[in-house]
Write the structure tokens for this entry.
Amino acid sequence: MKGNFEFWTRKSNRSLWVIECIDPNCSWRLRASKIVPESTKFVIRKYVGVHSCSLLNRNANHRQATYVVIGEQVAPQYVGVEKGPGPKGVQTFARTELGAQISYYKAWRGRKHAHTLIRGSPEQSFHVLPSYFHMLEKLNPGTVTRIEVDGESRFKYLFLAFGVAIRGFRYMRKVVGIDGTFLKGQYRGVLLVATAQDGNGQCYPLAWGIVDSENEDAWSWFLTQLKEIIGDTDELALISDRAPSIKKAISTVFEKAHHGACAWHVAQNIKNKFKCTDIMGSYWSIVNAYRCEDFTGYMIEISNRYPRVAEYLENEVGFEKWSRCHYPGLRYNIMTTNMVESLNIMLVNARDFPYVALLDVIQEKMSKWWNDRQIVAMAITTPLTPSRESELRPRFAQSNGRHTSQLNPITYHVKGGELEGVVDIFNKTCTCKEFDIDKLPCVHAVAAAHHAQVSVYSLVSPYYTKEYYFLAYGETIYPVGSQSQWDVPNEVVTRIVLPREVKEKKRGRPKTSRFPSVGEFKKRKNRCGKCGAYGHYKKKCNSQTGSTEGNPPTNVPV
């Protein structure tokens, strides 16, 4: 192929294969036959390896450069990586390594074939899914898996929660973010995620699910499985966007937990519905306000400028859904679903994989996180996690300038700064409400602890301590290994899971990018009117002369 020589098959049957150069006058040929009639292996009996044909017969658009051959040759470049070369990269590979000029479409098909060789076909993924889940449960005790099929044994939903994450949730703040992101493979679907946040401010994935779409039935099924592993208590907070299907499913499945709206999604809805962006500074001030007095002041300001926005936030959304000070439960400082969005972005390249290959990537990511964070936890020398320690230290420095007086054995009055505070070191509260909500001592609480000669660390929630951080990641998530090494009972192997029915494929290139969320816009780079470069304005241009690439200066005749 590298020499651009093409061949054709003169004879091919079960016992004989004869190929010759495409030029009938050329002497190049190969003849192979079975070793013995009963064997499946062929041996080369005759080979003339020298071409005697003209250079005019050489063709870079090689007839043997099929997408199957291209895929087999380029497949090693997709081992151990999530993305690998795209179709143009495959074209370059074929040209430089194989000496073949191939079309973009053939490169795309070759890339798809390479994916199938490395990650398996989508249909095969459904077939091995029960066995894969069995091995996960066997190697990771306590792991919970579920597969839901319809009356025809066609796939509907799946659920996965690793046992180490379930056990580690007891060391997490009871705030869980949930969201979904669309999958891009042949059978599409939606990946659902439920994640907490550890004491160091990092994502702590609890459960994963794959469903047909984000509808009420799918969310109800997923949340029912989630409820079995995390329970349903007044302490639990569930944070999501304001999709009607999620809201209704949460209210149906969770009777005691409190539901909160993602403040970022509410902001995007405001931008889209009322076409105002200058209100965002005031909006985020009321979102993050700890005291209702401060909240009311900001709301009056918004009501005077944008009465319709104020009415929307109060009546349609509800203060208790997005406001820190009005939230009926305890969501600490977690006001958005950013922790879930981070997981969606992490899997951006794996979302077109077959389902089992996607779950393999999730397992690999979580295994790496658990290992890396174990190492970090063992290296911590302070009582708190690094992020919480960095929050507390500036408050300790600020507390030195505060005047503290004792009101009774457990209550202290702290003056100085913009706001005074009355601290109860026994019940761990402060009139500034920051201590009450975040469960991390505010400046007033730090000053009171210093005055009472009490360790400030004794006032911190145990969720922020290095002990809880280590216990959350104290176990290991194990991979299932090669399929040839699996030990699966026959009743699991023979379980039938068929691919779900999909709509007829539309013509043209498959869509792999999502539609922007409500109020979400792509940022456009600024172009300088003087030099034509991107990234700055004309007033801030440092160029002495205009660029020939941009528009010509207006004072120069054209």
